[in-house]
Amino acid sequence: MNTNRSQALFTQAQQYIPGGVNSPVRAFKAVGGNPLFIESAKGAYLYDADGNRYIELINSWGPMILGHAHELIEEAVVKAAKSSLSFGAPTAREVIIAELIADMVPSIEKVRMVNSGTEACMSAIRVARGYTGRDKIIKIEGCYHGHGDSFLIAAGSGAATFGIPDSPGVTRGTAQDTLTVPHNNLAAIETLVNDNPQQIAAIILEPVTGNMGVTLPKRGYLEGLRRLCDREGIVLIFDEVMTGFRLAPGGAQEVFGVTPDMTTLGKIIGGGMPVGAYGGKAEIMDYVSPAGPVYQAGTLSGNPVSMAAGLAMLTYLHEHPEVYERISNLTQDIVNGIRGVNEKLGLNYTLNHIGSMYTLFFTGAEVYDFATAKESDLALFGRYFQAMLQQGVYLAPSQFESLFVSAALSDADVSHIVNAHEVALQQVLSQK
Ligand code: KE4
Question: Which helix (H) or strand (E) holds 344?
Fold first, then answer.
């Protein structure tokens, strides 16, 4: 497969952009080789700078749930752009999308638009701290909430459960207010809360994780968090930047029937444009400036073009709930096919999936938290990723990510993915 143009672009990009990319995971560091530079996309397919076509299973890390260049979204963006790209003033469209989000997402009575999932999560934490008057937050190891300082925290060593900076530039002062616990471990969180009485402002987690790969909440876990937060006056925040509007119109909170106090959103909400949002109970959201004392702002928040894309996307999903059945069925067909190949080859790799999200882990262990996810053979995953690219299938370039299935996939694409999986596995296992 000729990727000369991508190679040349990557060499040039590294002169002017740190690592040659505008977001680290795109650099293929976890899988080896150089990143492909994408020229265009349509439906279920990506086309790189050398004209190679790939069946797409990242979908821009979630947003492109209907597939790329969907005519409804494109038309909305083009139409809005003709009336200027930004006013920095309120518009009717923001009111309409806010009402629609409040209608779709069980926990949301009021919502504030921002420009990324990171901004949404940073803001939600600040509001929770302002609302409770408390400083500490509990973060789950392996969950990712964007690059806000409070979240770039590694698990404390041993008994020390306060966090330590997970990136240069994050101060110890910041880290000491982020406590970390393993995922799916209610007892560990109960202990942490009891050890820090009246000090925890919020618990934030991905209810279904994507950022350690897909893991599902253990039976009773989300319900236990809900009861704990009710008892202790802690703000329960579901980070649904990935799962929001993906697993159901109302996200994971609709699927699992557990309603958080606040929800953060991103990705699908913008239809591919840079949009994030945070919302929740009116009692909490009324703490946000200018209604309340907690400051948060943004020049391009709610800008008319992003709102046009987001409104077109959410309206379509709201009016066509059959999309969710379609993408779940497509995903089930892929999962069944992959499992069938693995069984035929005598492999017991763990595959976690829900709705249109799945991760194939290169370990036989049950994967339910970050420690078990890290038991995967990362070198083998890297070789598998490259082999799938050669077969024309574009996966997430990291073991610790979810794949996302779009409604644009055809049954023929599903067959191609499963066949490619068999060829790629046989290829990489013969290299061992
Ligand atoms: P953004 O700031 O990237 O829009 O959103 C941050 C974020 C927050 N919460 C969750 C659950 C997320 O998955 C994300 C971003 N996800 C990554 C994929 N693991 C985006 C890809 C990237 O970082 O380039």
Answer: helix 322-344
Q: Which residues are catalytic?
A: 144, 239, 267
- The pLDDT of residue 69 is 98
State which ligand 1 atom lies nearest to the alpha carbon of 119: 2
DSSP for 122-180, written as a single string: HHHHHHHHHHH---EEEEETT----S-GGG-EEPPSTT--B-EESSTT--HHHHTTEEE
- Going by C-alpha positions, the residue among 69, 65, 68, 45 that lies closest to residue 55 is 45
- pLDDT tens, residue by residue, 32-86: 999 999 999 999 999 999 999 999 999 999 999 999 999 999 999 999 999 999 9
Can you read off the two tokens belonging to residue 378? 């990362």
Q: Where are the domains of the chain?
A: 4-69+321-430, 71-319
- Asked whether 242 lines ligand 1 (CB < 6 A), one says yes
In terms of residues, how long is the chain?
432
Look at residue 158 and tell me whether its pLDDT is greater than 70.
Answer: no
Q: Is 263 in the pocket of ligand 1 (CB under 6 A)?
A: no
SS3 category, 298: coil
Fold topology of 4-69+321-430: Aspartate Aminotransferase, domain 1 (3.90.1150)
CATH of 71-319, one of 3.40.50.1240, 3.40.640.10, 3.40.50.10490, 2.60.40.10: 3.40.640.10
Q: How confident is the model at residue 164, as a pLDDT?
A: 80
Q: How far is the CA of 340 from the centre of ligand 1 (A)?
A: 31
61 lines ligand 1 (CB under 6 A): yes
Q: What's the gap in Å between 146 CA and the centre of ligand 1?
A: 5
- For residue 86, the CA-to-ligand 1 centroid distance in Å is 24
Tell me if the pTM is above 0.85: yes
Of ligand 1's atoms, which has the minimum distance to the CA of residue 25?
24
pLDDT digits (tens, 9 = 90+) for 168-220: 999 999 999 999 999 999 999 999 999 999 999 999 999 999 999 999 999 99
**Pocket lining: 370 vs ligand 1, CB cutoff 6 Å:** no
Q: Whole-number mean pLDDT of the chain?
A: 96
Confidence of residue 93 (pLDDT cuts 50, 70, 90): very high
Report the separation in Å between the CA atom of 323 and the middle of ligand 1, taken as the mean of its atom positions.
Answer: 23
Q: What are phi and psi of 403, to 5 degrees?
A: -95, 155
Cβ–ligand 1 distance for 60 under 6 Å, the answer: no
Q: Nearest CA to 62 among 318, 380, 327?
A: 327
Averaged over 331-343, what is the pLDDT? 98
